[in-house]
Specification:
305 residues; alpha/beta; Rossmann fold; seven-stranded parallel beta sheet; 11 helices; 12% strand
């Protein structure tokens, strides 16, 4: 039988010691990073990869069950809900308490995707999309910037998307949130010039994860599919969900994003943007050289396949 449970703070970490044995034994100079969205996919892969590289990783998740699972995997797992400002503040407090006030990097990665034609989306659904994918990221970023300014250095990395610079049918709410993040990060990079804080965007294309499946499930959960003029298209999306993830030869695993994240974090002079997957590279070129309406037609054909 296990002993009495140790008291925990709101972020889920024991109050009387560092987040985990491995983290407690980390060398004083170990670089520290807070990563959000670590329950699966890119965040989960990034947390483990950076931990293996000697970073002191704080892996943030929204659900308590995921926090327990990650802690069992050996990660310093904490609770952070982008929709809850108090949760964000508590997570930052716990991290700084554990590190003595230091945070070398932040990877804003957690989020969700609300699918559906814009004309079918009530404003509340778009507001919820931005609360998670934009306002929560802003809240967290604002809290870590003063820390990085005091220490004279830092890296703030945003996981954007190819949909942060190219539109897609039935992805309007998500596209809008990612376009917003692109503008936000570009502005922040200019404003933090000379501070020692680098701001980097990572723009993945098709990545194997649970993210797309969750987005498609939200179609049935949040939209009036039967009453929509786009019913046939929604039904095709739901059929794809039932059939499993597509097997595009251009789809990469989360490790492809992690590879670019490592460059963004460890390069002495990181790029402003790192694109991931061939479709993202192609989309960036087409965005520069094609008239907008020609690009619209190409995007429409791709999304109808």
């Amino acid at each position: 039988m296990s002993g009495p449970r140790r008291p925990e703070n709101r972020a889920g970490l024991p109050l009387e010691k560092a987040p985990s044995t491995r983290m407690a034994n980390a060398p004083p100079a170990a670089r520290t990073i807070l990563i959000t969205g670590c329950s699966s996919g890119i965040g989960h892969a990034a947390a483990h990869a950076l931990d293996r590289r000697g970073w002191r990783v704080f892996a943030a998740v929204r659900k308590e069950a995921d926090r327990i699972r990650l802690a069992r995997e050996g990660l310093a797992a904490i609770r952070l809900d982008y929709d809850d400002a108090a949760s964000i503040a508590e997570a930052v407090r716990v991290v700084l308490e554990a590190t003595g006030g230091r945070l070398d990097a932040l990877f804003n990665n957690g989020g969700m995707a609300q699918a559906g034609a814009l004309e079918d989306l009530p404003t509340d659904l778009i507001r919820a999309q931005f609360e998670t994918n934009f306002f929560g990221w802003h809240e967290l970023t604002r809290l870590v910037i003063p820390v990085m300014r005091r220490q004279g250095h830092g890296r703030i990395v945003f996981c954007s998307s190819v949909l942060g610079f190219v539109a897609a049918r039935f992805r309007g709410a998500y596209v809008a949130s990612k376009f917003a993040i692109e503008g936000y990060a570009d502005t922040l990079r200019v404003e933090l010039g000379g501070s020692g804080i680098d701001v980097v965007l990572i723009e993945p294309g098709p990545i194997s994860s649970e993210f797309l499946g969750r987005a498609r499930r939200r179609i049935r959960e949040t939209l009036d599919v039967e009453g929509s003029l786009h019913r046939a298209a929604y039904e095709r999306e739901l059929a794809r969900l039932a059939g499993g993830e597509s097997t595009s030869r251009f789809r990469k695993g989360p490790e492809a994003v992690v590879e670019k994240l490592i460059r963004a974090l460890e390069s002495p002079r990181p790029r402003a943007r790192y694109r991931v997957t061939f479709p993202t590279e192609v989309a960036a070129v087409l965005k520069r050289v094609l008239p907008t309406r020609v690009l619209d037609r190409i995007v429409a054909r791709v999304r109808r396949r």
